Structures are given as structure tokens and as C-alpha cells.
Amino acid sequence: MHRLVKSVxxxxxxxxxxxxxxxxxxxxxxxxxxxxxxxxxxxxxxQKAKEAIxxxxxxxxxxxxxxxxxxxxxxxxVLMEVYFTVATTTGGGSIDFTDTSANGSNLVIISYSDxxxxxxxxxxxxxxxxxxxxxxxxxxxxxxxxTVDLTCxxxxxxxxxxPGPYHRFQLEVKxxxxxxxxxxxxVPARVDQIVNLY
Length: 198
Fold this sequence. Notes:
Distance between the termini: 110 Å
Helix content: 25-40%
Number of domains: 2
Structural class: alpha+beta
Number of strands: 12
CATH architecture of the largest domain: Sandwich
């Protein structure tokens, strides 16, 4: 019987402790690599999400809004200037309204468009209403009146294309950082020298 048992297990070899340790170490190394890859991907995506949130907050904090009505100055029933007052939104950051139109590098760009023509940039000036600070930064609790010169719009336009009664147009105020302020208005049917654009 002893011979029979010995012959059955003659060519069988068991796994030794060292082989078990090598296999265990290999599993631990592979698991560590997978864990590192998973953690790195998670940290990378978290960092990208954080950057997106910060850029979104920066855009939202540098937004301007209109305070009050938008008025237009008419000459011979043609809109020549537009006046509106801007302020920062609640919790918004400062916006630089320095007028550097002499060298063509305004920080805030105002563009004009209607059904007939587009002007990527038009001339504008700024008047401080409730502050006398030396800088041209629109800060919290400050109001600036913007005067947009539209003489370039009617200079080369036909009578039909000139902004007159019932004419619908759009102004876009584009600060260096923050959302674009879009103003869509229509010249009223009855025009005086100064009209309220609706």
C-alpha cells in the first residue's frame, strides 16, 4: 500500500513558500500600478474641474449691467448717439473703462449691428456719475454713463439703412473679462431730439 501511494504522488510537486511570495508580490505590484493610475486620473479630473469653476467664477464676477433707461440722440430722424449707464453686478469685480480710442486699443469694445450692417467696434466715451476717483475702473457702487457715437453707421448708409424710426439694432459691450452685455433696442415711431429706446 505504501508503494502504491508513493507511486501516485511520485511526479507531483507542491508550491513552495518562495513561489507563493513571488506571486503575491506580483499581484501587489500590479494592484499598486492600477491604483496609482486610478488616483492620478481622479486627481487630474478634479484639478480640471477646479480650473473650470474658477474661470466661471471669474467670468461671473466681472459682469456689468445696465442701470436705468437707454436713450438716443436723434438728428434729422437718424440716431446719432446712444446713452446708457453701467454698473457692476452684485459681487462683481472691477472693469477697466479707460478710453484709449486715440491709439485704437480700448479695453472695453462696443460693437454695433443691425439688419443691414455690422461694425465690430464703434467709438464711445465715458462719464463718471457718482465718483471722482482718478482711475477709470468701474468698481462696486459706481456708475458710468457711456456715450456711443453712431455717426459711422449712417455715414455710408442709404436712407433705408440709417437707424431711424422703427429701426432695430444691437449693441454689444465686451469687457476684457466677463460676460458680454447685449443691448437690443428699437427706435420709436415718434422721434424727438432725445428718445427713450425700447
